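About this split. The held-out portion is used to measure sequence recovery: a designer receives only the structure tokens and must propose an amino acid at every position. Recovery is the fraction of positions where the proposal matches the reference. Here is one held-out target exactly as it appears in the evaluation file.
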């Protein structure tokens, strides 16, 4: 990693001072509004003087004028692209199901060079549209957007991305030797050099990815066998069977994505050092030991990246790619301004379907996020400012929409804020509308309205949770000024519980709270703590306002139910904190939550339709749960 390209080619604001990071963390723990010095309570009071839906309309109005591009088309066929023949194949379409799909015939012409040349020519000319016509196209590398370029798929255009990992470690700007030529990416909230996403942009302005309709398809082929073995991108997830948190027919199917032992994101990778001090010599032995935790689990790729971030190793020295098993995103744009996603379908994606990071003015309209493989989040705006997501449909193997803002120390981009989600439909997923768990930089000023959580696959692959927050003592962050209204859930959500295991000695008994599945409204400030060694950032959740949520019952073998529990609020669990700060940071309850004019149907857990822990001021107004209408304020 002595390549001068790595030393000099990176201008990512990665040299954020520890002073700023400490301030951001303190702001989260202490309830400060970043950039203003206001406390959370003062901010809430100020926000309360405004009509929140006027704030939402102001954000919507910002996108009334569409992004403009030069009126010139650059057809990829003019740069040498040719359509390909496709042949039938049997491939995974979820973690537990196979189906008959199509894949490019062996020897198909690679359109990567033609697409790259068309984008370069369009950019050089001052912008325009790079057009992918109808037909089947094989692309063995990433589509990398440049400023003022709109990559547009005509109706019937089907881009099959190569399912060979090496093709996403060829064209990045950072020569990392045997790891490949890698791209600066962010993986589950932490920065690193890794495989490029299949559609990628960094630091660009005025860009768009559009399609004529949902027959315009970007296909990640994540369930198709790799060229040289009977495994696939999803094999890198590293589970040997379904789990109870969200897979189809959880725990009951004998068919599931297979993986190679030792070649997954959760396998000990011998390429990773045996001591964190080898890559972070500035750490004391005590600091390194604290970050590593007990045993060698920290050497798993997914944990190793977290450890590098906690150890303050610069992003350009967090090198993954070949020999490692962190799956690439389908679409990831980083530090871009004026971005449009519109009118196409993505399917069979290796990892998250869309992840704009540190982007400004992001408009998402009429997309179909259609991938139900592991971790196939539909749309994850991360540390983005001014986002409008509308008129779109999500069918996912993880959260449909998840608002994020970095993990651990990687919070240099600040909070996600000023976001509106409206007129969308959600089917399968862990959470229909989710905040976190990757939220260390905070989330504020989010408005969601007029959504249908259709849950059309409720018999076989039910939506786990309708409205969900996830954080813990490692992720920290804040969520505030959240307004949600007019939500219809015509087929309920999952009616059986899924529990997260808690830490030994926790104040919460293990597998006792259904935070993972079964709650219509779930605020979980103790999310999955066993996977985090550093637990020093208490989350702060306040000023959450939800109204007019209508949830119907469905017929189950045990009766007509809408959910397992109607409301689950697990506030911060003080016993999870393992820092040495004296005094320890103040751990505050979830505060100022109002739920108004809702019918949450009939929970299967009739004896305990609500679960509350470390909550202050949950106000229910005209909330029907089963046969009871609640008008009261609760604390626990």
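Reference sequence for scoring:
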């Amino acid at each position: 990693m002595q390549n001068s390209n790595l030393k000099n080619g990176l201008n990512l604001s990665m040299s954020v001072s520890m002073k700023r990071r400490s301030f951001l963390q303190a702001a989260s723990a202490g309830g400060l509004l970043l950039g203003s010095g206001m406390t959370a309570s003062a901010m809430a009071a100020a926000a309360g003087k405004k009509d929140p839906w006027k704030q939402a309309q102001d954000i919507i109005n910002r996108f009334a004028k569409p992004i403009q591009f030069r009126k010139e088309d650059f057809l990829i066929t003019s740069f040498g692209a040719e359509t390909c023949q496709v042949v039938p194949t049997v491939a995974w379409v979820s973690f537990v199901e196979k189906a008959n799909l199509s894949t490019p015939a062996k020897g198909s012409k690679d359109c990567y060079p033609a697409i790259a040349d068309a984008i370069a020519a369009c950019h050089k000319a001052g912008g325009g549209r790079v057009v992918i016509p109808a037909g089947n196209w094989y692309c063995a590398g990433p589509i990398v957007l440049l400023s003022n370029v709109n990559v547009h798929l005509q109706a019937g255009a089907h881009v099959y991305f190569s399912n060979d990992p090496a093709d996403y470690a060829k064209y990045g700007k950072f020569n990392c030797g045997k790891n490949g030529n890698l791209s600066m990416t962010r993986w589950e909230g932490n920065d690193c050099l890794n495989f490029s996403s299949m559609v990628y942009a960094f630091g660009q302005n005025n860009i768009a990815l559009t399609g004529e309709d949902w027959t315009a398809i970007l296909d990640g082929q994540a369930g198709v066998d790799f060229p040289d073995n009977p495994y696939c991108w999803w094999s890198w997830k590293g589970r040997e069977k379904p789990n109870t948190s969200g897979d189809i027919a959880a725990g009951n199917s004998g068919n599931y994505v297979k993986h190679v032992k030792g070649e997954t994101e959760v396998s000990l990778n011998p390429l990773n050092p045996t001591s964190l001090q080898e890559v972070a010599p500035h750490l004391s032995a005590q600091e390194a030991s604290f970050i590593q935790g007990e045993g060698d689990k920290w050497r798993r790729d997914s944990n190793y990246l977290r450890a590098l971030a906690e150890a303050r190793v610069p992003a350009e020295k967090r090198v993954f790619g070949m020999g490692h098993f962190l799956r690439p995103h389908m679409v990831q744009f980083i530090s871009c301004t004026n971005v449009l996603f519109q009118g196409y379908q993505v399917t069979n994606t290796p990892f998250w379907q869309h992840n704009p990071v540190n982007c400004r003015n992001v408009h998402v309209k009429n997309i179909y996020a259609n991938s139900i493989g592991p971790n196939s989040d539909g749309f994850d705006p991360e540390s983005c400012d001014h986002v409008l997501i509308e008129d779109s449909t999500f069918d996912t193997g993880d959260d449909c929409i998840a608002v994020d803002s970095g993990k651990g120390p990687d919070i240099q981009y600040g909070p996600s804020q000023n976001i509106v989600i409206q007129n969308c439909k959600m089917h399968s997923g862990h959470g229909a509308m989710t905040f976190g768990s990757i939220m260390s930089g905070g989330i504020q000023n989010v408005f969601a309205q007029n959504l249908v959580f259709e849950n059309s696959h409720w018999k076989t692959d039910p939506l786990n949770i309708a409205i969900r927050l996830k954080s813990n003592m490692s992720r920290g962050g804040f969520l505030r000024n959240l307004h949600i209204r007019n939500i219809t859930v015509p087929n309920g959500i999952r009616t059986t519980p899924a529990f997260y295991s808690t830490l030994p000695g926790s104040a919460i008994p293990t597998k006792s709270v259904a935070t993972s599945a079964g709650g219509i409204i779930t605020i979980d400030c103790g999310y999955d703590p066993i996977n985090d060694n550093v637990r020093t950032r208490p989350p702060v959740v306040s000023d959450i306002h939800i109204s007019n949520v209508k949830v119907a019952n469905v017929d189950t073998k045990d009766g007509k139910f809408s959910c397992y529990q109607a409301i689950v609020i697990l506030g911060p669990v003080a016993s999870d904190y393992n820092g040495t700060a004296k005094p320890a940071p103040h751990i505050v309850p979830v505060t100022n939550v109002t739920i108004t004019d809702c019918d949450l149907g009939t929970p299967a857990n009739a004896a305990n339709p609500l679960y509350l822990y470390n909550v202050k001021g949950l106000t229910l107004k005209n909330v029907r749960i089963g046969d009871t209408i609640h008008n009261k304020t609760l604390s626990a």
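Annotator remark: Residues 18-30 form the longest helix (13 residues).
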